[in-house]
Design brief:
294 residues, mainly alpha
Length: 294
């Protein structure tokens, strides 16, 4: 029973909290380092940490070249496409609220993809939950979104992030089940790091202004997000249905808004609080199994 409670509630709760703090890296890192440079260094540090952990724990490596290829492709989607798209959109001026709204379509997109690729089937209650969650997400972010903030390039970057995390979640579920998370993470972060460094060499000056806020942003991004949150995400994907796991991401913007309200004194509107309630209800309808007795 304790293990069931841990898997069903504690692990998802910790994952959502850590994932919701992703704005910390952008908030404290982007003023002092360009996005692709930041992400390249972040990937390199995460790869080194996981390599040390894998060697000490003698974790098994992917058994075949094809398994390693699947791991690499999954990493390029989940890390390269998703993080690269989101950070690029924010870096060129798109507000985080608008990015969150676009990427917030991920649970529905993933559920549709999982239906065709993984043969996962959602019932009417679960589809209703996805719709309610999407409405709640819009209410949470409505005061932070304006059509004037949307440009073709920023929309393209955001959509790249949306498509990448959706495809990566399904791909991870289908092909990453037998690979150790530690060694698989090393391969994913190495390849994603090379991608980001190539983009940094091509499009950025790679200027870095080291200071305490940047060090904190990098440390948090590496340890809490790339090591902690991603490991929990992969565990959730491995243990559950992709559509149910992706619905948890509906909770990220509300939790982010709550953290910003408590820590940075950002405004929390009445409609945002209603949206948070709807998001929680929607996610519950998707992931919880209700039993009705007559």
């Amino acid at each position: 029973m304790n293990k069931k409670i841990l898997t069903s509630f504690l692990v998802p709760a910790v994952f959502v909290f850590l994932w919701a703090t992703g704005f910390i890296g952008a908030r404290y890192g982007l003023p002092y380092m360009e996005p692709m440079t930041f992400l390249a260094i972040r990937m390199a540090l995460a790869a080194v940490i996981l390599l040390i952990v894998a060697l000490i724990s003698k974790a098994p490596w992917p058994p075949t070249p094809m398994a390693a290829l699947h791991v690499t492709i999954s990493g390029l989607l989940v890390h390269g496409g998703y993080l690269g798209g989101v950070w690029a959109a924010i870096a060129i001026g798109m507000p985080a609220g608008m990015v969150s709204l676009i990427v917030g379509m991920q649970p529905i997109l993933t559920s549709v993809a999982a239906f065709f690729v993984l043969k996962e089937r959602l019932n009417v209650r679960q589809w209703l939950g996805l719709l309610i969650g999407l409405i709640g997400l819009f209410l949470v972010l409505a005061h932070r979104v304006s059509a004037n903030d949307l440009t073709p390039l920023s929309a393209l970057f955001s959509c790249i992030g949306l498509l990448s995390i959706s495809a990566g979640t399904v791909y991870q579920k289908k092909f990453f089940a037998s690979v150790d998370i530690r060694t698989g993470g090393v391969l994913q972060y190495c390849t994603s790091g090379l991608l980001f460094w190539s983009l940094a060499l091509a499009f950025e000056q790679r200027t870095v202004v080291w200071n305490p806020p940047l060090v904190f942003a990098m440390a948090w991004s590496v340890l809490a997000l790339s090591v902690g949150a991603v490991a929990l995400l992969y565990k959730l994907i491995r243990d559950g249905e992709a559509s149910r796991v992706s619905s948890l991401l509906y909770l990220v913007p509300p939790v982010t808004a709550l953290i910003a309200f408590l820590c940075f004194d950002e405004r929390l509107t009445f409609f945002a609080m209603i949206g948070m309630t709807l998001v929680a209800l929607g996610v519950a309808l998707v992931i919880l199994k209700f039993q009705f007795r007559r």
